[in-house]
Amino acid sequence: MTAIDSSLQTQEPDAISAGTTATTAVKGRGRVPWRFLGNRALFYLFTLWAAITINFFVPRLMKGDAVDQYLARNRNVSPEAADALRALLGLDTDKSLLQQYFDYWNLLLHGDLGVSLLHGLRPVTEVISQALPWTVGLVGFATLVAFTIGTVGGAIVGWRRGSRLDALIPITTFLSTIPYFWLGLLAIALFSVNLGWFPIGKAYGVGVTPEWSFEFIGEVIHHGFLPATTIIIASLGGWMLGMRNMMLTVLDEDYVMVAQAKGMPNDRVLWRYAARNAVLPQIQSFALSLGFIVGGTIVMEMVFSYPGVGKLLLDATNAKDYALMQGVFLVITLSVLLANLLADVAYAFLDPRTRQTEA
Amino acid sequence: MTVLEFDGVTKAYSVRGAGQIKALDDVSFTLESGQIIGLVGQSGSGKSTIAKILTQLETPTSGEVRLDGVPIPRRGKELRAYRQKLRMVFQDPFASLNPYHTIRYHLERPLRLDDIVPRDQVDDEVHRLLERVRLDAKAVIDRRPHELSGGQRQRVAIARALASRPSLLVADEPVSMLDVSIRMSVLGLLSDLQHEHGLGVLYITHDLATARHFSDEIMVLNQGRVVESGTADDVILRPQNPYTQELRAASPDPDKFFASSGILGGAQ
Amino acid sequence: MTAVNDRTAQNDGAALDADGAHRQAGVPATATVRTSQRPASTPPRKPTFWSKLGSAFAMFRNPKSIAGLSILGFFVLVAIFADVLAPYPPTRIDNTARFQPPSAAHWLGTTHIGEDVLSQVIHGTRGVIVVGFLAAIIATLIAIVIGVISGYLTGWRSESLSALTNVFLVIPGLPLIIIVASMFDDPPLILIALVLGLIGWAWGARVLRAQTMSLRTRDFIQAARANGEPMRRIITVEMLPNLMALIAASFVGTVTAAILGLTTLSYIGVIPVTTYNWGTILNWASAQGAFRQNQWWWYLPPGLCIAAIGVALSLINFGIDEYVNPRLRSAGERARAMKKKGMNVNDTVTVVRTNTKTQENA
Predict the structure, then answer these.
(1) Distance from the A5 Cα atom to the nearest Cα atom in chain B, whole angstroms
(2) CB-based contact A317:C178 (threshold 8 Å)
(3) Does the pTM exceed 0.90?
(4) How far is C72 from chain A (nearest CA, A)?
(5) pLDDT by residue for chain C (362 residues), tens digit each?
(6) Where are the beta strands (DSSP E) in chain A?
(7) How far apart are CA B93 and CA C14, in angstroms?
(8) A313 interaction partners in chain C (CB closer than 8 Å)
(9) Disulfide engineering: A287 pairs with which of A343, A348, C52, C335, CB 3.0-4.6 Å?
(10) Rounded to an integer, what distance in angstroms lies between the CA atom of residue A272 and that of residue A181?
């Protein structure tokens, strides 16, 4: 005879009689995926710590005579500033490494990044804060435009696969393998030198004072057109390719076929179904590429003499202004981490799966 | 004779926000060599968890699993000896073979790893294994998995499992992903091997019909618990537990169909 | 109780495919039932070394990859035979022929002190190729070790390796290199390659980790573990071949990044101008005002070479992409084929042809 587990005779409506294995539906709890964001924030804090520590060690790895030269050059520095520089650059050889580390953190938390030799002994923080808006403005604007055009374009190229639009992919990819700086130089050679449409460099004309007037904003746009366009053209290819590939994969999925079979109009399928799912990895790669974007910006600023943090870094490097170099690196890293966090927030809200795993 | 004992095994997973989920709840059974036990249940009933525990991919939360009276070892020579005695055949013939290696490689590895035969006899043994699963060795041996059909791949998987001369075989839905028409021949092969070598087989499936034809005894699993067990005919033809009865009612029964439509002259 | 011993019709494909015939997907094994034993036909030829090599490099055997490899090969040859190919020594000064546009004597004109631009570009190839490949080799090796191991292990070891990867990924690379490079006066090529490699491994490691994690759950890996294969064998012999395409794509991408990075750093001047590469040529050109004075023969060729190598590498990567993801390969072709038949691939309704001239085989 068969053995039966009689304790199971009385049960809640079991799966078979209910007709499904899911007997209760869980309502999505809460809109904010705190856990996910908390994890990411923790990671970024850790990375920031790593970056600061790297920053701490780099000048201490330099050869000794470079440091001595530096000491010799800044005799006009006020005593407090001199102390700060010593702590930043590891010139306090009598203190233990650990003590130096603590002093370094102390300085940072007070917002003191030393003084800049190159810029008339002004505090590094002041010098950087003047340059930062230019970089953020230009790069932020250009990257967002490139991302948008690339993603939308990639979606369309993916949708219209097999058409002549496919040729856009190799063209834009070619453009993105051209080094930024060369493209920028060509642009200057063509549009500034030969055609004279745009100024050769800088963010605004010589002798013009920055102010919130239409004239000034017009100057800024005029000067910024070439750099921005260069960045956009050069980075377009990557976004477009990535989006188009994702679209091709998504369009093969069954749910797209079901949507079309239901008779849903094409543009709804394209934008509401396919593109919406394909864009998620794009956002992730956007976040990851921020580091690379920064690299390109630095060069672009040099080519166009644009007064952003990139140019600041390069000038500091050439002049061996170590305090400024350290400061700029720190600020750049901090900005990249912040941007990454924002991208993570955007991703978390867009991808319902992150919200669901919280519940 | 080898004896496998599952003794009060429970496997629980903790899920955030949902407390604990029990994949297995106080499961006990005994499998002896020469015997075929069918383990029947729907998706999520815990069948695969049992297979995973037997192949050391999971460990029980409580309870014990013993082979020949000894709990499953965790490492060392004893683990190696255990692995040799109990082998598994996986469900997906497309995924259980490495697409990069030839069939010869797949069969040589277990022979070499466990030193089943001396080096110079490995090639002969590979040929013998292929013959035992009724594959044309010459045609198949240097091919890669994607060049074979699903049925052939599954036979290779069986051959690989037999390479180490195990006493017990765990077959986790070995024919579910094969064409219906070839399922019986692959199961027939398993049955013959079982007779020839006195293997004990744990046949895990959701298909009542093949379970009945193939097994000596059947256990029915529902949500991690054994709700019914007994000889194959008893469980299938005279189920006592309502869940088993539902399962049986859900399976199409060709006897009933033909009888009711009068195609064949009456009952069997 | 009847045991299943029905072997009168061996119709499970074992006998059917004994002749090695490739059965089409979707055709059931019982499509042709044979009642007699077929004679064993000739077995497949034992794979030769060349055929194995060919199949290993199958990912390169499509038009895009081949085109890319040819261009790349061209540059590699130029780099190797630079001394023979260049008409003049690159640093030969000729004060009588300064700022000259292209002519018969100087195919790409001359620089501000009469050096031959063509020779400089040819010699510059060597630095680019060497650093590019060296940096990529270093980066890819690190990526494989960290990525695959962190993907295969579980628990805190995997997580910490992953965190390490992410840190390197997020920290902006170029500023770091600039700062590091500025500390040295004349860094040798090897050092530059090393630094570029150390900056660039993180991306590949992340991709490999994801793929290894998905491979880990595959049945054949479980089977290998159940067989008792040691971990190092599982990683090297079982997993790595399945990762080859990813590794190749990552390597190619890293070469691109390294070359772009090298030329950019050279242009900026962070890497001193004693080393020869296309970036330093642009540095000189820019410093001498070539852009402002329309000396296009000086500044166009190096940039075009960089772009050309970039295109070549991208083509190779496209080829690998299509090999790995067949949807990419056939998507465009399918759409074009359908267009020829008068159908749009995005149509919501399938067009039904009312007249069939020929019966397709069932």
Answers:
(1) 5
(2) yes
(3) no
(4) 14
(5) 333 333 333 334 343 433 334 444 554 444 333 333 434 444 445 555 665 555 556 667 788 888 889 999 999 998 888 888 777 777 777 777 777 777 777 777 777 777 788 888 888 888 899 999 999 999 999 999 999 999 888 888 888 898 899 888 888 888 888 887 777 777 778 888 898 999 889 989 988 998 898 888 888 888 888 888 888 888 888 888 888 888 988 999 899 989 988 888 888 887 776 667 888 888 888 888 877 777 788 888 888 889 899 889 988 888 888 777 766 666 666 777 777 777 777 765 555 666 654 444 33
(6) 3-4
(7) 14
(8) 175, 178
(9) A343
(10) 38
Residue A174 backbone dihedrals phi, psi, to 5 degrees: -60, -45
Q: Which two tokens stand for residue A253?
A: 């999925």
Across the interface, whether the CB atoms of C222 and B90 are under 8 A apart is answered: yes
3-state secondary structure (DSSP) of residue C42: coil
A172's tokens? 């834009």
User: Which residues in chain A are closer than 8 Å to C166, comparing Cβ atoms?
Assistant: 43, 47
Instruction: Identify which of A5, A16, A17 has the shortest CB distance to residue B227.
Output: A5
Spatial separation of the C-alpha atoms in residues C260 and C266, rounded to whole Å: 10
Closest CA to C93 of C123, C114, C122: C114
Q: Are B191 and C3 in contact (CB under 8 A)?
A: yes
Count Cβ atoms within 10 A of the Cβ of residue B75 and give its class: 0-12 exposed, 13-18 middle, 19 or more buried: exposed
State how far the Cα of A340 lies from the Cα of A291, in Å rounded to an integer: 9
CB contact under 8 Å between B149 and C29, yes or no, is: yes
Chains with 3+ CB–CB pairs under 8 A to A are B, C
Amino acid at A192: S
What is the 8-class DSSP label of residue A123? B
| C258: CB partners within 8 A, 6+ apart | C131, C132, C135, C136, C139, C193, C196, C197, C200
Reported as half-sphere exposure (CB side, CA atoms, 13 A), residue A178 has a value of 25
Burial class of A218 by CB neighbour count within 10 A (0 to 12, 13 to 18, 19+)? exposed
Q: Do B216 and B36 touch, CB atoms closer than 8 A?
A: yes
Q: What value does the CA radius of gyration of chain A take, rounded to a whole number of Å?
A: 28
Q: Per-residue pLDDT tens for A201-238?
A: 777 766 666 677 777 778 788 888 888 888 888 888 88
3-class secondary-structure state, position B154: helix
C39 touches chain B (CB under 8 A): no
Find out whether A179 and A268 touch, Cβ atoms under 8 Å.
no
Alpha carbons A195 and A201: distance in angstroms, whole number: 15
CA nearest to A308, candidates A214, A195, A231: A231
Calculate the alpha carbon distances from C345 to A156, A240, A277, A278, B19 in Å.
Answer: 14, 21, 20, 19, 48
Pairing mode of beta strands B86-89, B36-40: unpaired
Structure tokens at A261: 């079979």
Contact between B179 and C29 under an 8 Å Cβ cutoff? The reply is: yes
Calculate the alpha carbon distances from C47 to B142, C21, C54, C240 in Å.
Answer: 8, 17, 10, 21
User: What is the per-residue pLDDT across A167-192, written as a single tens digit (0 to 9) for each?
Assistant: 787 788 778 778 888 888 888 888 87
Q: Are C301 and C121 in contact (CB under 8 A)?
A: yes
- Asked if A23 and A330 touch (Cβ cutoff 8 Å), the reply is no
Nearest partner of B236 among B214, B258, B218, judged by Cα = B218
CA–centroid distance for A248 within its chain: 26
Query: What amino acid is encoded at A322 in this protein?
Result: Y
Chain A residues touching chain B at CB-CB below 8 Å:
1-5, 8-9, 14-17, 21, 359
Residue with tokens 């697409």: B99
Structure tokens at A124: 């590094």
Which among A2, A9, A17 has the least Cβ separation from residue B230?
Answer: A2
Question: Could you say which of A3, A15, A17 has the minimum Cβ distance to residue B228?
Answer: A3
At residue A168, what is the residue type?
A: L
